[in-house]
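User: quick one
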Amino acid sequence: MSAPIVIAGAGVGGLTAALSLARAGRRALVLERAAKIEEVGAGFQIAPNAGRVLAGLGLEPMLAAAALEPQAINIRRGRDGAVLARLDLSGARERWGAPFRVFHRADLQQILLQGALAEELVEIRTGARVGDFEDRSGVVSLRVHTSGGLEQIDASGLVGADGQRSAVRAHLHRTERDAPIYSGATAWRALVPAELAPAPLRAQESNLWLSPGAHVVHYPLRDGSIINVVVIVEEPPRQQDGASILSLDGPSLARELDRLRSAPMLRELVEAGAVWRHWPLFARPPLKSWSRGAVTLLGDAAHPMMPFLAQGAAQAIEDADALGRAFTQFGATAETAFAAYERARIARASQVVRASRRQGEYFHMGGPAAFARDLAIRALGGRGMLARNAWLYR
Ligand SMILES: Cc1cc2nc3c(=O)[nH]c(=O)nc-3n(C[C@H](O)[C@H](O)[C@H](O)COP(=O)(O)OP(=O)(O)OC[C@H]3O[C@@H](n4cnc5c(N)ncnc54)[C@H](O)[C@@H]3O)c2cc1C
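Assistant: Done. Structure below.
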């Protein structure tokens, strides 16, 4: 039997890639450094462009059971909560072939994991950290760190789906200045029990609040009993003590945000979060190429992006789909398939990276620019605002 394609990382990108490769008739071995495959307690918006791919992989019944489908997105002015536009999402399935959905991250992770485990061609090993590797004309020799010591594994190709701080990327681009740099913005995330949130914010809808230098996104999860809230603020980097994760309680974060002069309803929502986890956002310079020989990158490892269009995981899912297709169409060797995959994906993913950054600038405007933006949002209305993102969802 030929050596498998090794996928480093069992995040959304790695697991979807394993499924997609199996559908293309390829063996995939997923190596995950964590001892257990689990996701942080937070939410994911999965836009129609990614939902279509996941449904195409046969996951639709599980997705439908775990997801909540928000009926609309309300764009609100941060200082008083005025709704500038209401984007009706009810026609998404007809227009883009899949609905807008939101998931608890752990639920989506489990769906992908169970889907991958059900494939005979997929093997998943946890507690296996991919170290360095050599590509010897088509056979990639990997050094893998496990609790039992260092192992050597031979692969017919290596996909680095190992996230923002990818070891595979570091190994491919040793000589380039490629370190992650703090973007100037931090995400604070919390899950708030719906019964503690102000009543108007408990509806089955997403909300986006715009303030100078900050924005807030929230939506209900599962049966609507919890609300996923993300507060993004421009702030200097904070000291983080080793591996420990900085967190704040609701009243402390609300006090810090007082400078935003937010609407009382928004402040109440922030105060209701028991534990706010600090998530500094890092950017990396774009790569001109993702692949070298029988090694390539996927998802955040290839194209980390600001989360302002909620497309990071969606683009990783699109990558995974393109990877499977490349093997079906051009896949005599990993090298040819990876080159085809990169050709199919790099322009679009780079476009989304740039658009995500611009979206942040748009959201965080202040003064007269914000006033003009708000007028423009009102003039465009929900339909017009949704149409601005049609290129993403198609
Ligand atoms: C605040 C915030 C909100 C977001 N909201 C959304 C959203 O609503 N919708 C959306 O589409 N995207 C969203 N994103 C982006 C999304 O979280 C990421 O783009 C996505 O998780 C990337 O998936 P991935 O599989 O590429 O990487 P990751 O999810 O980072 O997975 C990488 C995996 O690789 C493992 N790993 C790392 N190194 C090694 C190694 N050397 N060997 C083996 N395993 C390794 C890690 O343990 C991890 O399991 C958001 C991001 C943030 C910060």
